[in-house]
Design goal:
Chain lengths: ~400, ~400
């Protein structure tokens, strides 16, 4: 398959599988300026699938960085109504949303962290309506990647920019199952596997998962009653399937925010706000991080944990076999969309309300009472190693092996 | 001077001369995605000059074209509040506005003209507040160019894309007076020349200009009482100077919309909504076009004239010597910003309220009574030839030669 064929196929499946555009839908596309060509190709597929309109929201991380360097904190924290409305309006109408990410992992290195935090908090508030509707199944959404040359160079430091970018393209195509056979078929098969795993875990309805490995991880993650494991495609409130992430290898659910106990060691570096946190551990008691340390980026980790109450508690637990095709590339992508699919991970911060029964209809307070976490942050960190063991503990105390040597037992 | 030096100088004078950024200002930058690098450089200069914030509004003509091809007319004509507000809000605060243009002259060839018109009318309405404030001196604004490869190829069809783009860059730098000496000094000197010409014409206070040439043009353009000739920099209501166009070679004023008589032949092709109108003439009676014809694009010309009442009447008369540096490039730029500065021109449609005494404070009705034209359109067309003569007729009937053989007499 030529590059052009793969590229076109990619744009096509973003529209068809990613957000599953249907007649009369508004589609928002958050598109980095460097990915304009790809954004347009996705847009064209959306129009052809009957979209009422495509709202192309171009963004530019280089300009964002400049803005952090020059504009005052109060200016950055003041998100005008029009900016909120250009998302919220379409969520109200039940739109689809594509986020194309093409981030230089180091673009925000050295930027003013207070301003970045102020911006994150203000955004969360300004786009609350959008996210609330999305969390309640009112928006079909997907996150997909596009190679930024700086990002590619970070992954492939020994290649020149053009070679690195091409190499990253190949990894993107491979991990989104383009190149061999029909991509739609590949995704359908993949979805069956993920759904089967999720069903098995849902059938067990574990009250706790215990993670252990040779790094020293010994963590008990308690799961709330009624938690739901998801994998692969999800359904919006109309019952239409979409893939929130492409690629995706994970099955995931909601931990009880107040019950995590023990210690966990990160298996991979974490990129947070353009800075790298590496060689870190977190110690939990009653759900909260009570101790932590990092070989690199400890101050950044502290800032992350101190953002708000919810940033010290878990919002997601995801299981990915060590033999996942993304792990098997042997690459560190410096990008959550990929790295989270290479390794079992947990997330500090916000939960997904759909990962508990009735969660999409719960108020914030109800959700919290059931163990759902709220935060400005949702930051995945990787904990899956080749020797990871996970036991599931059922409500009646039975211990069921879930992972051995980094992979699913069943 | 290296390319990089010129490029940086260009971004600098856009911020300093074009909009004259001062402390605490909001700056809007309308930036084509292909010009993101340049837009950022302008933004940085704005921040360094004390801008409170820069609002970067990326646009993409390729996506716009796609939208015209796919979205329904009623969708295109429905400009949501947030889109209007993202300009109007900042005008209310007294912002500066940079428009970077990088248009492929043929991007809209064959696009649905009804949709384009619907969009133009809806935009005019949605951004009325913005334009009203701008017309009344509340926004310092500038229009500058950036080479689009397709545009460059249109000007230099015998060069390859890269060569053509470089050639266009050189023309842009030259016409914005970058490359020899200090650009700020060059502009200051140029401004003195333009202001001197404007003053002379203001002192004459002609009631009519009569244009004649060998093509057959014989047109009497009557000027309203109190009309003002402008050239070069203008002043906003704070009395701060800025250059609305870079480059600029014109001095211009407002014709009386109801009084033009005679016939005028276009000296150059006109690009309107991505289509070319060439070899055309317009015959006026009592201010209105009553007859017209074109060798190419007559249907497009008809559409332009039929847009609204004001599209058949004049809103601007501008004088540019045939020996203008832009004319002397010998190039047809297919872009009004350049071509209008190569040739005497007239504009069909909207007038500039500041070109009549007190116009900025007049209501729409008052302005109309004084001869000021209102329209969705403001379309410049070129009438200056090497043999153009213009006589000015004073209130007491004296005939003063203004142009002979295409150039200013004084």
């Amino acid at each position: 398959m030529t590059f052009q064929k793969k590229y076109e196929e990619y744009a096509k499946i973003v529209a068809s599988l990613g957000i599953h555009v249907t007649e009369g839908k508004y589609v928002l596309i958050s598109c980095p300026v460097i990915a304009a060509d790809f954004g347009r190709m996705v847009a064209e597929n959306c129009y052809k699938a009957g979209a009422k309109d495509v709202i192309m929201l171009y963004n530019d991380e280089k300009f964002s960085r400049m803005r952090y360097d020059h504009a005052k904190k109060e200016v950055i924290a003041d998100i005008p109504f029009w900016q909120a409305e250009r998302r919220n309006l379409y969520a109200r109408e039940g739109c689809c949303n594509v986020s194309i990410i093409a981030d230089d992992p180091e673009i925000f290195t050295g930027a003013d962290s207070e301003k970045m935090m102020a911006s994150a908090i203000a955004s969360k508030k300004a786009f609350k309506e959008f996210y609330d509707i999305m969390d309640r199944g009112g928006v079909r959404w997907t996150v997909v990647a596009y190679p930024n040359p700086q990002w590619a160079k970070k992954i492939f430091p020994n290649l020149n920019e053009e070679q690195a970018t091409n190499a990253l393209w190949e990894q993107i195509f491979r991990t989104v199952r383009i190149g061999e056979g029909d991509a739609q078929d590949n995704w359908a098969k993949h979805d069956v596997v993920l759904k089967k795993r999720a069903k098995q875990l849902n059938d067990y309805a574990f009250s706790c998962l215990r993670y252990q490995n040779g790094m020293g991880t010994d963590l008990s993650v308690y799961l709330p009653e009624g938690h739901i494991w998801y994998g692969g495609s999800e359904e919006d409130r109309e019952g239409i399937a979409y893939f929130p992430n492409m690629p995706t290898e994970e099955i995931f659910t909601m931990p009880h925010k107040d019950k995590t106990e023990g210690i966990v060691y990160a298996a991979m570096p974490l990129v947070y706000q353009g800075a790298i946190i590496d060689g870190f551990y977190l110690k939990f008691h009653k759900g909260k991080v009570i101790e932590y340390g990092a070989k690199q980026g400890e101050a950044v980790l502290k800032r992350l944990l101190d953002t708000d109450d919810g940033s010290r508690m878990l919002g997601e637990a995801a299981l990915i076999p060590y033999n996942s095709p993304i792990r098997e590339t042997g690459l560190l992508f410096y990008e959550t969309l990929f790295d989270e699919n290479a390794s079992c991970h947990l997330a500090l911060g916000e939960c997904y309300p759909n990962t508990i029964r009735g969660g999409e209809e719960m108020s914030e307070e109800e959700l919290k009472r059931c163990g759902g976490n709220k935060s400005v942050n949702h930051v995945d960190f990787m904990i899956g190693t080749a020797d990871l063991s996970i036991d599931g503990i059922t409500a009646d105390g039975k211990v069921i092996p879930v992972f051995r040597d980094g992979n699913f037992v069943f």
